[in-house]
Amino acid sequence: MSSQDSSSSSSPTPSSSDNSIFKRWSRTFGVITGVGMTEEERRSELEAHHGRTCETWKREMMNYSPSVVFMLKHLKMSGCPVAPEHIVCAPCDFSRSGGFSPQAGAIVMCQGKFFNKRHMEDTLVHELVHMYDHCKFKVDWNDLRHHACSEIRANSLSGDCRYMRELRRGFPSFSKQHQACVRRRAVLSVRANPACPDEATAERAVNEVWESCFNDTRPFDEIY
């Protein structure tokens, strides 16, 4: 047998690239099905996957999302530039998809809590509106009227109250759907404020500032 024949009849050796692809595929398969992994390993790998996805989407949005880039521009113009480290991807409880910490001057994106990339984009814009209000208007978050105003603006301007988003939440409506969504979500957020004693107080705070704050679309020219 010639050396050429011997070479052609031998089994091909998998390349390091093939092995790497296979390992990634096996890991992904394990995360989805649980096969070959302990429950703890699966949870850990799934959390790491959510973290990588959140960080990737965050970078893309800060560079290419028209609404996010617009908000970042106006925050910088207001004297509060936002760097990537001011937007943190982290695990959260089941009740939220994002949050703004006035004390830390940072936004938390709740990795693994987004239906899709658009949902994360809307959440980020929502929190950037809070950050903008805090920077430009010196919001006192213990003042329920201040809090209510920022919640009205953030829910209205971010895309949180689009019709399909409300339908997913189980709130179909054909009459003043946007306003109803903004009002409902603002009341829920104000009610969660430790300074708020009950739902009636939250509703009153939202009602007192509704007209002026709903009509205030800064820094946008109109509702996004």
Automatic annotation (TrEMBL):
GO terms for cellular component: mitochondrial inner membrane. It is found in: Mitochondrion inner membrane. The keyword Membrane applies. InterPro entries: Peptidase_M76_ATP23. Belongs to the peptidase M76 family. Its EC number is 3.4.24.-. Its main location: mitochondrion. GO terms for biological process: mitochondrial protein processing; mitochondrial proton-transporting ATP synthase complex assembly. Signal peptide: none annotated. Transmembrane segments: none annotated. Has a dual role in the assembly of mitochondrial ATPase. It comes from Cerrena zonata. Keywords: Hydrolase, Membrane, Metal-binding, Metalloprotease, Mitochondrion, Mitochondrion inner membrane, Protease. It is an enzyme of class 3 (hydrolase). GO terms for molecular function: metal ion binding; metalloendopeptidase activity. It is a peripheral membrane protein. It holds the Pfam family Peptidase_M76. This is Mitochondrial inner membrane protease ATP23. PANTHER family: MITOCHONDRIAL INNER MEMBRANE PROTEASE, MITOCHONDRIAL INNER MEMBRANE PROTEASE ATP23 HOMOLOG.
